[in-house]
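Entry type: protein chain
Record version: 2
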Amino acid sequence: MIAGVQDAFADKSKLSDEEIEKTLQGFETRVKTAAEAKMKQDAKESAEKGTKFRDAFAKEKGVKKTESGLLYQVEKEGTGSAPKESDTVMVNYKGTLVDGSEFDNSYKRGEPLSFRLDGVIPGWPEGLKQVKKGAKIKLVIPPELAYGENGVPGIPANSTLVFEVELLDIKADADAKPAAKAEKPAAEKSAK
């Protein structure tokens, strides 16, 4: 390949333009096939690791599981009412993969994040509806309630996501300013 490129630059190519085109197309196909195989393998491994993590987490004290497969553990109870999907919430949170690698953290940015619950991955509204204002909750979100088989930059396909969330405030839909656009967690932003 390198010799072929060198010959082409020196105008000493041993191949016709058509042969060069076919060779490059063949190389591109092989690279694409190898990349797809790697992505499928990574997705399979991610799914397996996520299943093991969720099985272990489900056995921890105080962990509850919803019908959809979301796992959560209330670390601190809140007061008042729980948010509805149409509400805007203000949260501080840290998001990690099951291996502990962090993909988002509002604490490190130094400011909480506000967003409408109906505009994020399904695991967030389902999990936050389990707690009230002031609560701290750990959410373990299976892939089908997160980014599924697609993944997003920084979050591989079939990833189980782990969020430590502090629900700071809830603004009912009627209280929310219609002109204000809710900001989403970084993982949400990159998916749009």
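Comment: The beta strands are 63-65, 71-76, 88-97, 102-105, 113-116, 136-141, 161-171.
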